[in-house]
Design a protein that fits this description.
- By secondary structure, the chain is an alpha+beta fold.
- The protein is 15% helix and 44% strand.
- It is built from 1 helix and 4 strands, in the order ββββα.
- A hairpin with a 2-residue loop joins β2 and β3.
- The chain is globular, with a radius of gyration of 12 Å.
């Protein structure tokens, strides 16, 4: 997990550019992140680049990642 996206370990093989939704539990709170598939590593998983983050998503990710870089969020 990073400010820009994450890698999902899953044998699913989505298409490059496919839109997806990720539900993560961070700090005991369920957060939904949306984005696009940017890389597929068959049969291990795939990478998702997040859409611009909302204030709620940014606040939740701070619990996991600390303060965002100046260009994130």
């Amino acid at each position: 997990m990073s400010w820009g996206g994450c890698f999902i370990q899953n044998p699913a093989e989505p298409a490059m550019g496919e839109r997806t939704e990720i539900v993560a539990i961070i700090g005991g709170k369920e957060i939904t992140l949306t984005g696009s598939v940017v890389y597929v590593e068959r049969p291990i998983g795939f990478s998702v680049q997040f859409d611009p983050l909302t204030t709620e998503q940014t606040d939740a990710l701070k619990d996991l990642l600390g303060e965002p870089p100046a260009s994130a969020g």
